[in-house]
Amino acid sequence: MNRMESLAGRPWPRAVTDAALAVLLTAGCLVLPLAMPQGGPALREPDATWAVLVLLTTLPLAVHRLCPLPALLVTAAAAGVLQGRHYVPDLSGPDGTSIGPTYLTVATAVFLTATRTTPRVAALVGSVLIPAAAVTEAVVAPAGHRVAALLTEGVLLIAAWALGRLARARAAIRDQALERAAALEREQAADARAAVMAERARIARELHDIVAHNVSLMVVQTIAADRVQDRDRDKAHELHGAIEETGRATVTELRHLLDVLRTDEEGPGDPTREPPQPTVEALPALVDSVRAAGLRVDFSTSGEPVELPAGSHLAVYRIAQEALTNTLKHAGRTRTALTLAWEPERERLTVRLCDDGPASDGEPVRPPVAAHGTGHGLVGMRERVGAVGGSLHTGSRPGGGYCVHAVIPLPVPEPRHEGHSA
Q: Which pTM does this prediction carry?
C-alpha cells in the first residue's frame, strides 16, 4: 500500500488514495454492461436500483480507513444483491468463470480490512465473513456450478485476506526495524556524549593540576622576590619577570580549562589520578616503548622548537600516544611515521602520524603499559586538540593505511613590561 500511496517519492494523503481507489472501481462497475459481449449471459438492464447498488458496493472504500469492518460489510452485501438480482454475471456459470470489477471490489475490501485492522478483527473476517460470502455465492449460482462458485469465491477472498495479513506483517517488521534503528542511534549518541563528558572531565582535571602548580610557583617566586628585593634588586627584578610570565601562562591555561568545562555534569573524584607529567620531550621514550612492542616507527622533527604551554605539551603527547596505541591495536606490527613540524612563522606545530595498514604477518600484539592511551580514541583526541584551540583531521590513505593530522597553535610572544617598583 505504501507504493500505491506515493508518486515520485512523495506520499499522497490517505483520504485521496482511498477516494481514488473507490472512483476507479466505481468506473469499472459502471462500464461493465457496456463491455459485455453480444450473446453473453442474460442480465437485467441497468436501472436506478443498479446504480445505487453499484455505488453502495464501491463508495464505502473511500471511507474504509475510518471504519474498515462496516465498509467491508456494506460492500459485500451490495455486491451479493447485484449478483442475486442478475445485474452482474455469475462468478461461475455455463459461460465459465467471470471475475469482474464487482468481485474485485469485494476482494479489495477484504485485502484492506486484513491490512488495517487488528488480528482479532482480521481473524473474524477470515473465519466468518469469507465462508459466509462463499456459501452465498454458491446459493445464488446456477445449478451444477455451485461447487465451482463456492471454491472460486473462497480462493479469491482467502488470497486477498492472506495478502493483506502479509502486508500487515511486513509493515510491522519495518516499523520495528525503524524503531530499533532509532533506539540504537539514540544509544550511540548517548555513548558518544558520555565519552566526551568523561574525556572533558579528565582534561579538566589535568589542566586544573597545571593551573594549581603555576599558582603555587607564583606564590613561591613572590615570597623569594620579597626577601631579596632590598639586597639584590636585579634578582628581584628577574623574579618579578618570571612571576609575570608564569601568570600569563596560568591565565592561558585557565581559559583552556573554562573552555573544556562546558557542562555541569561532574563525575566522582579520582584521588589516584596521575599528574600531567608528559611533554613533547617525552615523545622519544614513548616511541621506544611502542618499538619494543613490535611497531616500526620512524620518528622525525623539523623546524625550531619553541616553548609551549603545559596544556599544549600534554595535548601533543596524548595525541601521539593515542594514535600510536590505535595503530598498534588495529594494524599490528606495521610501519608508522611520526613527524613533528615546528612552524613558528605560521604559529603552529603539526603532529602527523601515518601507518601502512595492517601488518602482513597478522600476529596478535599486546601493547605495553607505556603505550596505552587514556582517552576514548578519536573522541579524546578531538577534545584535547579543541581544548588548546587546534584542529584534527583523520582518515584512510588512498594507498592503504591511516593518518592522524593534528595542528597545535603556538603561543604568540607578548611584550614584557620593564620596570618594577620596589
A: 0.47
